[in-house]
């Protein structure tokens, strides 16, 4: 285990709604005068030091947040583990000896350890929701495009989002109110969809930990299968495959040229994913896009005004450092929001053998404020 920070700072005190709150910044976001490393030493060597803050950082600072450090991230944000072959594994105080979850690992760790109040992170395929679940935190993946990613290193631009991790819902709402752009949709969440077909895939221990939190929300619960009567839309595993294909394609488009020119050393998981991404062709992408379109339509149909999808944020608690995770099982739970560009909120729900697991609430695109109010 290691410190969540790769660089610590003594930032100036400021006034504003976030005054007095400490901000940990994932090392994908630019800080003026500070190198951006994206979790890889070769990236650090081959990119200039930024002269301006990323937009998200600038907004949080302008609202009074005080930066206390840049945090460890999984390499180029392409992992859900929270491990980094170059910088180590940030501590998870909620599950000692276990991973914090990635790729916003350092930001989650800093918040869970009490060394920051707000952890700025990104979520492409679950990189805020997974560490929130593993570390017992609150975290929001916003509607795609509602928080600026200008000045942040991309992974898969049509999936990438920027959000925050906090220890409580009130701080999450304060920070996201600063970051969210555009007009919120009106109306509260009045009903939960907890689809039988998705919950049937969840381990009994996780269901026992998370389901009471679903019931405790006091809203009507609909168990209708998510993929029932879905026409051409494939089941959940096909949705995961489509997500993984499109993410890989976009990641290679974003970084393939740099990788071929600079030959960075990646950890084994990240290296394998980039190697596989280089082999994809347009036919793979076209097939995945068809599934994505179907899932997006399904989200609009299943999550009308006032309805939120309620499923576990992760299949179980954080795995022990050195063990191999079931990445596919994780992505099956996180891919629906990613494919549809929808907001997804992770909240602490319960424990499995004393280790935290989270509940994930997904709304239709634009429903971010509804989820924050529900939290």
Automatic annotation (TrEMBL):
<dbReference type="InterPro" id="IPR036928">
    <property type="entry name" value="AS_sf"/>
</dbReference>
<feature type="region of interest" description="Disordered">
    <location>
        <begin position="86"/>
        <end position="106"/>
    </location>
</feature>
<dbReference type="InterPro" id="IPR023631">
    <property type="entry name" value="Amidase_dom"/>
</dbReference>
<dbReference type="InterPro" id="IPR020556">
    <property type="entry name" value="Amidase_CS"/>
</dbReference>
<feature type="domain" description="Amidase">
    <location>
        <begin position="12"/>
        <end position="181"/>
    </location>
</feature>
<protein>
    <submittedName>
        <fullName>Amidase</fullName>
        <ecNumber>3.5.1.4</ecNumber>
    </submittedName>
</protein>
<keyword id="KW-0378">Hydrolase</keyword>
<feature type="domain" description="Amidase">
    <location>
        <begin position="265"/>
        <end position="372"/>
    </location>
</feature>
<dbReference type="Pfam" id="PF01425">
    <property type="entry name" value="Amidase"/>
</dbReference>
<dbReference type="GO" id="GO:0004040">
    <property type="term" value="F:amidase activity"/>
</dbReference>
């Amino acid at each position: 285990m290691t410190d969540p920070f790769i660089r610590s700072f003594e930032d100036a005190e400021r006034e504003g709604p976030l005054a007095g709150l400490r901000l940990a910044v994932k090392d994908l976001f630019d800080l003026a005068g500070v190198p951006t490393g994206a979790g890889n030493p070769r990236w650090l060597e081959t990119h200039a030091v930024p002269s301006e803050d990323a937009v998200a950082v600038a907004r949080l600072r302008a609202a009074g947040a005080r930066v206390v450090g840049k945090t460890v991230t999984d390499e180029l944000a392409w992992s859900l583990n929270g491990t980094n072959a170059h910088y180590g594994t940030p501590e998870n105080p909620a599950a000692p000896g276990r991973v914090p979850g990635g790729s916003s690992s350092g930001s989650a760790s800093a918040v869970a350890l009490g060394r920051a109040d707000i952890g700025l992170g990104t979520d492409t395929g679950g990189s805020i929701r997974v560490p929130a679940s593993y570390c017992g935190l609150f975290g929001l993946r916003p509607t795609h495009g509602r928080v600026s990613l200008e000045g942040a290193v991309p992974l898969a631009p049509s999936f990438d989002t920027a959000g925050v991790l906090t220890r409580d819902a009130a701080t999450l709402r304060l920070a996201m109110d600063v970051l969210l752009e555009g007009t919120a949709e009106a109306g509260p969440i009045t009903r939960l969809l907890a689809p039988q077909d998705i919950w049937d895939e969840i381990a009994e221990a996780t269901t026992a930990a998370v389901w009471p939190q679903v019931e405790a929300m006091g809203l009507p619960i609909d168990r209708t299968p998510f993929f029932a009567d879905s026409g051409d839309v494939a089941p959940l595993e096909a949705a995961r495959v489509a997500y993984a294909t499109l993410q890989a394609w976009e990641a290679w488009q974003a970084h393939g040229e740099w990788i071929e020119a600079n030959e960075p050393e990646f950890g084994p998981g990240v290296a394998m994913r980039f190697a596989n991404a280089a082999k994809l062709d347009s036919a793979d992408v076209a097939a995945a896009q068809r599934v994505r379109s179907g899932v997006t339509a399904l989200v609009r149909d299943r999550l009308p005004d006032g309805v939120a999808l309620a499923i576990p944020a992760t299949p179980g608690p954080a795995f022990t450092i050195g063990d191999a995770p079931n990445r596919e099982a994780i992505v099956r739970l996180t891919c629906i929001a990613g494919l549809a560009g929808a907001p997804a909120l992770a909240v602490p729900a319960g424990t499995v053998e004393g280790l935290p697991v989270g509940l994930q609430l997904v709304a239709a695109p634009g429903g971010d404020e509804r989820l924050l109010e529900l939290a």
